[in-house]
Each structure stands twice: as structure tokens, then as C-alpha cells.
Amino acid sequence: MVSNISFRPWWHENLPALPQLDSRFPENADVVIIGSGYTGLSAALTLAHAGRDVLILEAGSPGFGASTRNGGQVGSGNQKFRVQSLIALYGREKAKALVRAGSEMLRYIEDLIESESIVCHFKKVGRFRGAVRPAHYESMARDMEDLKRFAGVEYFMVPANEQRTEVGTDIYFGGSVLPHDAALHPGLYHRGLLQRVLQSGGQLQTETRVTGLTSNRSSFDVHTTRGVLTAGEVLVASNGYTGSELPDFKSRLVPVGTSMIATEELPEELMLDLMPTSRVYGNTARVFHYYRPSTDGRRLLFGGRIRRLVAQNSSSAYQHLQREMNHVFPVLSGYRITHGWSGYIGYTKDVLPHLGCHNRIWYAAGYCGTGVSRSTWFGHKVALKILGKDEGKTVFDDLPLSPFRFRRAAPLGVVLFESWYRFRDRFYD
Ligand SMILES: Cc1cc2nc3c(=O)[nH]c(=O)nc-3n(C[C@H](O)[C@H](O)[C@H](O)COP(=O)(O)OP(=O)(O)OC[C@H]3O[C@@H](n4cnc5c(N)ncnc54)[C@H](O)[C@@H]3O)c2cc1C
Known about the structure:
Layout: E1 28-34, H1 38-49, E2 54-57, E3 73-74, H2 83-90, H3 92-115, E4 127-130, H4 134-151, E5 156-158, E6 175-178, E7 182-183, H5 186-199, E8 203-205, E9 210-215, E10 220-224, E11 227-236, H6 247-250, E12 254-263, H7 268-274, E13 280-283, E14 290-293, E15 300-304, H8 319-328, E16 337-347, E17 354-358, E18 361-365, H9 371-386, H10 410-427
Parallel strand pairs: 1-2, 1-11, 2-8, 4-13, 11-18
Antiparallel strand pairs: 3-7, 4-6, 5-6, 9-10, 10-11, 12-15, 12-16, 13-14, 14-15, 17-18
């Protein structure tokens, strides 16, 4: 039974105090960035390093969106599609370039954290992905081989009879390990990035919602809940939180809710039994779950879809997720849940992330749930584009960010798709 839990992300516990922010509302900026998640901060850092006067506007508190709520699993995004599916969709050369870009994103975030000395428990712990069907194990093995051939991705397969060396459950039919995937503390990563942006001269105004944009000849009037300011360039970095105030982007991004729970502190030996290699974990289901040890190694943090996101601040909303966790680890049924929280990820029509410029407004968004490395890299790349640099070119540039046809029906569509996917997870390969 889930009761008396905190609805704050576990990551928010014991975060260092926020840096002092200048609350005076500026009249203008070279570049205004809408949204203070990783996309916005990463772009701001690159722009500030290049000497641009950059201002981030955030509707809520700093990092209010997914960037301080996520699982802290750092991957390449290459597992969203099988390599063979990418080839069928985009051809061999483009598919190769796309998976290589995924690997580059992993390297980029690691280098950034090191070069900016961001203390956020970043560690290449590796990722274990459990097969929920015997056939998934075989197809995952083929896909891993393709990834290795295409992008030099290292991996190894773990057959079912050896899987206890990786994870303390027998529900999977073996799994794969990507040893170069990583884990970090999302809250500390966000704080660290923010600190570097401010130190480089960037500014952040919180509790300031952008309510509309008016395009002038060579600038924009940025309308906000605190007044109007002028910007040379505007970057939309609001991803899964994009609202009606940015209609061209809202129509192209669908918010999909995902949630996490944290257990109470567990005995050390139990933690070792459940996750002997302390990696980040997931499975091959369409409606998948993901989990990992907390950064202090004392709790299990488990994520997935909850059915009642509208009631995310009610304990009962998280019961379903707890049942799913107990299905993976029945031994946890005697333990309490202390935290439950939710957030929105941004989905695109082609399930690929996008960046570019639409009606003179820059954007980077749509990481479809693998946003820690992607948003960092996309933020950096779109900033290079704003700066007019060649290094801003990416393999994603010619992929159109298409509108959803029935965007208004998206909340219902997400629920219907989820039910259909759960049905297929249950009854089909
Ligand atoms: C529960 C959960 C678990 C996840 N786990 C993982 C994981 O383990 N690994 C992984 O790679 N990814 C994960 N993700 C996804 C990842 O967190 C996101 O893809 C990433 O943080 C996106 O960053 P962002 O900066 O683009 O958007 P966000 O961090 O969502 O930031 C957007 C911001 O824009 C602001 N905003 C919106 N509209 C306006 C406006 N009009 N004016 C001003 N501000 C505005 C919002 O308040 C918000 O703060 C998870 C997401 C969630 C919710």
C-alpha cells in the first residue's frame, strides 16, 4: 500500500541551495531561451561562452520540467529503433549516421561534465536491458551486433541462466549490457549546468512564462507574464511542457507522462541482491519500466507509466507502479514507498528528436524519453547553429518536425496507444 508519500522527486532532497538569481526584468537580450531544462541550459552555456547576452525564461522554478525529475539514465537513444528499422525508414547511410550521432551524444555529455567539473555522480555504470520474451532476446542480440558494426558500440549478451549475475529477478529471458551507458544525479547535473551558465554571464528569470512572440523585421517582442522584452533570436526549449502560447510547436510535440517511485532505504545486502552490478536497468516491453539504485546506493528508484497522471499528487496513482516493481522484485512487497513523482517527455511524430528553425524561431526538442544526453547535445548544436557555426550541422537537420494531425486528441490518443501497447506486450511478441 502506498500512503503518506512525498510527491517531490527524490532528487530534490538535499540539493545544494540555488545560486543567487538577478530578479530584475531585463529589457532585451541577444538570445531568449524558453525553458530552463538541459536543452535550454546547454544552449545557454554554448552561447554564453561565445560572448552572447543570453536570457533563459522559465515558467516555473529552475528546471521545473523533466530535467530535474528523470531517472538519470544516460544512453545514446539508439535503442528507440532497431538498426534494421532505421535502415528500412531512412536508408543505410542515413541510419548509420543517426546511430553514430547517438554515440557522439554519449561522449559529448561525458566530456562536458568533465570539462565543466560538474559534480553529479556521473558514472559509466552500463545498462542492462531485460528481454520480456524469448524472441526479444534473439532480436536484441541481432540489433546489438548491428550497432557494433555500424557505430562500434560495445555490448555483451547475458543469457537467462546467467542473468542473476546482473539482476536479482528471473522474469526476463536474458538481456543485453551496454557497458558505456551511464548514470547521473539529474538534480545535481541541472544545478551544475545552471551554475556554469550563470558564471559564464547567462541569466535566468524564473516564474516567468512566455505568453507569446511577435516577430519584427530583425527581432522579436517576447511577451511574458512579467512584461515584454526584445530579443534578437528566440530558442524554444520547452519540449514536453510546450503550451498553446507556442502553437507551431505545441502542434508538433505530444507530452507523454512518465512517473517514478523511490523505496524506503533498503538493507545493503538486499540492494546487492537486486542490482549486483549497480547499473541502470530497463526491459524490452513497449510500455517499459526502468530502474536503478539511488545515488547513495540505499534505495531503488523505479519508473514507468502510471495510468492516472492527472491525479499524480495522490498516493493511489503510484500503486500501479509499485505493483509493477513488486512483479520484478517480489521481495520488495514488504517495503514502503517514500516518494512518487511525474513529469512529461516530448514525443514527435517520427519518434526522433529534432532541431532547427521554423519561422525564424529556433527549436530543439522531442527526445522521446531519452533526453539526458540528447537534450544536452541538441542544446549545444542548436546554439552553434544560432552562432552560424558549421559545427552546428547534424544528421537530424533535414528531418522535418511534422505536425500531428489530431493534436487536440493527443491526451486521449496517448491513453489509447498505451492500452493497445499493453495488450500487445501481454499477448504478442
Ligand atoms: C519521470 C521521467 C523520467 C525520465 N527518465 C529519463 C532517463 O532516465 N534518461 C533519459 O535520457 N531521459 C529521461 N527522461 C527524459 C528527460 O528528462 C527529458 O528528455 C529532458 O530532461 C528534456 O529536457 P528539456 O530541457 O528539453 O525539457 P524540460 O526539462 O522538460 O524543460 C522544459 C521547461 O520549459 C518550461 N516552459 C514550458 N513552457 C514555457 C513557457 N511558455 N515559458 C517559460 N518556460 C516554459 C517548463 O516549465 C520546463 O521547465 C525522463 C523524463 C521524466 C519526466
